[in-house]
Design goal:
Shape: globular
Oligomer: single chain
Number of domains: 1
Low-confidence stretches: none
Mean pLDDT: 89
Distance between the termini: 22 Å
Helix content: 25-40%
Length: about 90
Amino acid sequence: MKRKFYSETMCCVACGASGVALHHVRTRGSGGTNLDHNLMPLCQEHHNEIHLIGTSAMAYKFDGVDEWLFKHGWEYEPYAEKWVHDLE
């Protein structure tokens, strides 16, 4: 249900395209959840790209990705070289 809602109502935070795929900021295999703060809406092209270059590179490349992360409570920990969230 949530995936259908996102894909029909949200736009890619990188380019604004409709028809998004949900990207888990923290992967399910790493303990990430399906809560809203962990599901970043991206078009399929940018969803593929974030898996290739990583979240930090995407945040640097696209202001919308950076803004989305901070708006949803994510912070980058440079010493740990990862994004952290209080709820994750």
